[in-house]
Specification:
- The protein has 402 residues and is of the alpha/beta class.
- It folds into 2 domains: 174 residues, Flavin prenyltransferase-like (Rossmann fold, 3-Layer(aba) Sandwich), CATH 3.40.50; 195 residues, Rossmann fold, CATH 3.40.50.10300.
- Helices cover 35% and strands 25% of the residues.
- The protein contains 14 helices and 20 strands.
- The strands form 5 sheets. Strands 13-12-9-14-17-18-19-20 form an 8-stranded mixed sheet, sandwiched between helices.
- The longest helix has 18 residues.
- The model has no long low-confidence stretch (mean pLDDT 93).
- Bound molecules: cytidine-5'-triphosphate (CTP).
- Cytidine-5'-triphosphate binds next to helix 12 and strand 17.
Length: 402
């Protein structure tokens, strides 16, 4: 499957280096040509000879050891690769890359590289959650690096948690999918922003106003976008769902935070899918202390939140906007009204009282309505399948009207 593909594997120093040997073997078995570059700390765990035997190629670790006088090794290797994998990637290496430091062979190659670079981190769970590491990951993501998220499980340090290098078989699957599908993926090279889940508006430190949105439809839309090749940013209110692999997840709480996060990514977005059930009102006053009960009735004065989608519609340039209309009566009429008033390109009309769909359900039944009034009803189906079909229809129709 990977015949003729050239993969440069940069191995940095952690106990997961042993898995990188298996990774080279699996990539070679799939037909790829593999060259390996090691950091000096990686060599503390596994000898270069293991990688040399598995890859049937020289292994590189010294920037100044020029094996061939006609080329400069770090430039030559960077240019050679169709894809560069860094696996395992340590917290230290992530920090170096995020700051443009090139003080060894792998980091110097990465600064010279123009090929896509995928980073597969592996480290202790607390290191992975350290604000400095998260900051560096964010920066690298913005610089265009892709991440193969570490999985959860027993870590060599004795902890159970996120930080374990993704299994070599899975990494090969991702590489395979990338090469085999990227040519005809309908959203390759596109940036898709998806919002999902409810927003939560605080009343006091122990109470809030929210809604029943489970986030399932939005998460399914994000997963479908990433599978169709898009760089996908998922801006999510509080839900109990696992983030789809390959998306950049941004967790927010309130409508105001969602607005800020969406605006951060709006400029460069090709599509914005607003599946979130955004609160229309929030308490005018958020109390610092828990409100005490009193005799008689109580009321909370509410103020309007900003309509995020309407704000986006008013600032729209080249972006395609897709809204959801959650309705309980006259769904199509209200949905079409929202399409118009928010300046959307499509609206997905969702009767949340339908027994086959709605909040919390794994399935949904919707009608996609486009700007020119074309209605496309979708029968009840699993939200994951529905999300794929919806995005496919949107992209196809979008191409026709370009
Ligand atoms: N929306 C938004 N910001 C808000 C409210 C809604 O961006 N403050 C978006 C939702 O994400 C959805 C669309 O607008 O894509 C329609 O949301 P919905 O809750 O169905 O309708 P509202 O516009 O809030 O109108 P109403 O509550 O009166 O039905």
């Amino acid at each position: 499957m990977l015949a003729d593909k050239k993969i440069l594997l940069c191995v940095t120093g952690g106990i997961a280096v042993y898995k990188a040997v298996v990774l080279v073997s699996k990539l070679s078995q799939a037909g790829a040509q593999v060259k390996v570059v090691m950091s000096r700390s990686a060599m503390q765990f596994v000898q270069p000879l293991s990688f040399q035997v598995m890859s049937r190629n020289d292994v590189y670790w010294d920037t100044f050891d020029e094996k061939e006088s006609s080329v400069i090794a770090h430039i030559d290797l960077a240019d050679w690769a169709d894809l560069i994998l860094v696996a395992p990637t340590t917290a230290n290496f992530i920090g170096k890359l995020a700051n443009g430091i090139a003080d060894d062979m792998p980091s110097t190659i990465l600064l010279a590289a123009t090929a896509p670079v995928w980073i597969a981190p592996a480290m202790n769970v607390h290191m992975y959650e350290h604000p400095a590491v998260l900051r560096n990951i964010d920066r690298l993501y913005e610089d265009g690096y892709r991440f193969i998220e570490p999985s959860e499980g027993f870590l060599a340090c004795g902890y159970v948690g996120k930080g374990r290098l993704e299994e070599p078989e899975r990494i090969v699957e991702l590489v395979d999918a990338y090469f085999n599908e990227s040519r005809d993926l309908p959203l390759a090279g596109k940036k898709v922003v998806v919002t999902a889940g409810p927003t939560l508006e605080r009343i006091d430190p122990v109470r809030y106003i929210s809604n029943f949105s489970s986030g399932k439809m939005g998460y399914a839309m994000a997963q479908a976008a990433v599978e169709m090749g898009a760089e996908t940013i998922l801006i999510s209110g509080p839900v109990s769902l696992e983030s789809p692999k390959g998306v950049k997840l941004i967790c927010i709480e309130s409508a105001a935070e969602m607005l800020d996060a969406v605006l951060d990514y709006y400029q460069d977005a090709d599509y914005v899918v607003k599946s979130a059930a955004v609160a229309d009102y929030r308490p005018m006053t958020v109390h610092d202390q828990k409100m005490k009960k009193k005799d008689g009735t109580a009321s909370i004065e509410l103020e309007r939140t900003t309509d995020i989608l309407k704000t986006l519609g008013a600032q729209k340039t080249t972006q395609r906007l897709i809204g959801f209309a959650a309705e309980t009566t006259d769904a199509l009429t209200y949905g079409k009204g929202k399409l118009e008033s928010k300046n959307l390109d499509w609206i997905i009309v969702n009767d949340v009282t339908d027994p086959n769909g709605g909040f919390g359900s794994d399935s949904n039944v919707v009608t996609l309505v486009s700007r020119d009034g074309v209605e496309h009803p979708f029968p009840a189906m699993e939200k994951k399948e529905l999300a794929k079909q919806l995005l496919k229809a949107i992209v196809q129709e979008g191409k026709r009207s370009l």
